[in-house]
Amino acid sequence: QMMLEPLIDQLFGEVKFDAVIGCRPNKPAKPDPFIVFEIMNKFKLNSADCLYIGDSEYDYKTAHNAGIDLLIAKYGYGFYDQPWMKNVRLTVDSVTELKDFLL
Q1: What does the angle CA 93 – CA 53 – CA 60 come to, to the nearest 5 degrees?
Q2: Among candidate residues 50, 2, 54, the one with its CA nearest the CA of residue 30
Q3: Which alpha helices (DSSP H) does the chain contain, by range?
Q4: Count of CB atoms situated within 10 Å of the CB of 20
Q5: Has residue 34 got a pLDDT over 80?
Q6: Phi, psi of 36 (to 5 degrees)
Q7: With contact defined as beta carbons under 8 Å apart, do 47 and 33 qualify?
Protein backbone atom coordinates (compact mmCIF):
# COMPACT_ATOMS: atom_id res chain seq x y z
CA GLN A 1 0.00 0.00 0.00
CA MET A 2 2.81 2.41 0.89
CA MET A 3 4.44 1.83 -2.51
CA LEU A 4 1.20 2.00 -4.49
CA GLU A 5 0.14 5.58 -3.79
CA PRO A 6 3.41 7.30 -4.89
CA LEU A 7 3.38 5.22 -8.08
CA ILE A 8 -0.21 6.23 -8.83
CA ASP A 9 0.67 9.89 -8.19
CA GLN A 10 3.70 9.66 -10.48
CA LEU A 11 1.83 8.02 -13.36
CA PHE A 12 -1.60 9.66 -12.99
CA GLY A 13 -1.00 12.92 -11.11
CA GLU A 14 -3.82 14.74 -12.87
CA VAL A 15 -6.28 11.85 -12.41
CA LYS A 16 -7.72 11.80 -8.92
CA PHE A 17 -8.84 8.41 -7.64
CA ASP A 18 -11.22 8.23 -4.69
CA ALA A 19 -9.68 4.94 -3.58
CA VAL A 20 -6.49 3.06 -4.39
CA ILE A 21 -6.10 -0.08 -2.33
CA GLY A 22 -3.51 -2.79 -2.75
CA CYS A 23 -2.91 -6.08 -1.00
CA ARG A 24 -3.02 -5.81 2.79
CA PRO A 25 -2.09 -8.24 5.56
CA ASN A 26 -4.94 -10.30 6.99
CA LYS A 27 -7.30 -9.42 4.10
CA PRO A 28 -8.31 -11.79 1.30
CA ALA A 29 -6.16 -11.48 -1.82
CA LYS A 30 -7.12 -11.50 -5.50
CA PRO A 31 -9.04 -13.11 -7.06
CA ASP A 32 -11.25 -12.78 -3.99
CA PRO A 33 -13.35 -9.63 -4.58
CA PHE A 34 -13.10 -8.49 -0.94
CA ILE A 35 -11.30 -5.20 -1.73
CA VAL A 36 -13.65 -4.44 -4.62
CA PHE A 37 -16.69 -4.94 -2.38
CA GLU A 38 -15.01 -2.85 0.34
CA ILE A 39 -14.67 0.09 -2.06
CA MET A 40 -18.18 -0.40 -3.45
CA ASN A 41 -19.64 -0.37 0.06
CA LYS A 42 -17.58 2.65 1.13
CA PHE A 43 -18.88 4.75 -1.78
CA LYS A 44 -22.33 3.10 -1.98
CA LEU A 45 -21.76 1.88 -5.55
CA ASN A 46 -23.33 -0.96 -7.45
CA SER A 47 -21.61 -3.08 -10.08
CA ALA A 48 -22.83 -0.89 -12.96
CA ASP A 49 -20.97 2.09 -11.43
CA CYS A 50 -17.60 0.32 -11.32
CA LEU A 51 -14.67 -0.46 -13.59
CA TYR A 52 -11.80 -2.66 -12.46
CA ILE A 53 -8.48 -1.72 -14.04
CA GLY A 54 -5.90 -4.47 -14.04
CA ASP A 55 -3.13 -6.14 -15.98
CA SER A 56 -3.33 -9.86 -15.27
CA GLU A 57 -5.46 -12.96 -15.23
CA TYR A 58 -5.83 -12.48 -11.45
CA ASP A 59 -7.39 -9.09 -12.16
CA TYR A 60 -9.67 -10.64 -14.77
CA LYS A 61 -10.84 -13.22 -12.23
CA THR A 62 -11.25 -10.59 -9.50
CA ALA A 63 -13.46 -8.40 -11.69
CA HIS A 64 -15.44 -11.45 -12.78
CA ASN A 65 -15.91 -12.58 -9.17
CA ALA A 66 -17.09 -9.07 -8.24
CA GLY A 67 -19.46 -8.90 -11.21
CA ILE A 68 -17.99 -5.65 -12.59
CA ASP A 69 -16.55 -4.48 -15.91
CA LEU A 70 -12.83 -4.79 -16.53
CA LEU A 71 -10.21 -2.83 -18.43
CA ILE A 72 -6.90 -4.59 -19.03
CA ALA A 73 -3.73 -2.51 -19.28
CA LYS A 74 -1.76 -4.63 -21.74
CA TYR A 75 1.53 -2.94 -20.89
CA GLY A 76 1.54 -4.54 -17.45
CA TYR A 77 2.30 -7.80 -15.74
CA GLY A 78 0.05 -10.27 -17.55
CA PHE A 79 0.35 -12.62 -20.50
CA TYR A 80 -2.10 -11.34 -23.08
CA ASP A 81 -2.13 -14.25 -25.53
CA GLN A 82 -4.03 -16.43 -23.06
CA PRO A 83 -7.62 -17.71 -23.53
CA TRP A 84 -9.07 -15.46 -20.80
CA MET A 85 -8.24 -12.39 -22.93
CA LYS A 86 -10.91 -13.31 -25.49
CA ASN A 87 -13.50 -12.29 -22.87
CA VAL A 88 -11.97 -8.84 -22.24
CA ARG A 89 -13.80 -6.00 -23.99
CA LEU A 90 -11.70 -3.02 -22.90
CA THR A 91 -7.94 -2.78 -23.24
CA VAL A 92 -5.28 -0.08 -23.40
CA ASP A 93 -1.68 -0.39 -24.54
CA SER A 94 -0.02 2.45 -22.60
CA VAL A 95 -0.31 4.74 -19.59
CA THR A 96 -1.14 7.58 -22.00
CA GLU A 97 -4.01 5.57 -23.48
CA LEU A 98 -5.29 4.77 -20.00
CA LYS A 99 -5.14 8.46 -18.99
CA ASP A 100 -7.06 9.39 -22.15
CA PHE A 101 -9.67 6.74 -21.36
CA LEU A 102 -10.06 7.96 -17.78
CA LEU A 103 -10.23 11.64 -18.66
Answers
A1: 95
A2: 54
A3: 4-12, 34-42, 57-66, 95-102
A4: 13
A5: yes
A6: -60, -45
A7: no
